[in-house]
Amino acid sequence: MKLFFFSVVVVFSITFNLNAQDKPAIIPKPNKIEWTDGEFQFSSTINYYSNPEADKNLTRLEDLLKTTGSELQKTSEEEAHVSLKIDKNLASKLSTEGYQLKITSEKIEIIAAENSGLFYGIITLRQLFPAEVESGKITSAFHIPAVEISDKPHYQWRGTMIDMARSFFGLDYLKKHIDRMALYKLNRLHLHLSDDQGWRIEIKKWPKLTEIGGQSAVKNGQSGFLTQQQFKELQHYAKERNVMIIPEVDLPGHTYAALQGYPELSCENFSNLDPKRATPPEAYDGVEVGWSKFCMEKPIVYEFVADVIAELAEITDGPYLHIGGDEIEDEHYKEFVIKAEKLVRLNGKSAIGWEEVTQAKVDVSFISQRWTGTTESVVDTRVIESICKNFYLDHGNVPDQPNTYSWCKKDGVSLKNVYDFISENRKAIGVEGAMWSELVHNDKSADDRLWPRSIAVAEVGWTAPEKKNYTEFVDRLGWHGKRLSELEVDFYNTPEVDWN
Ligand code: TNX
Question: Which residues span the domain enclosing 136?
Answer without folding.
Answer: 20-151
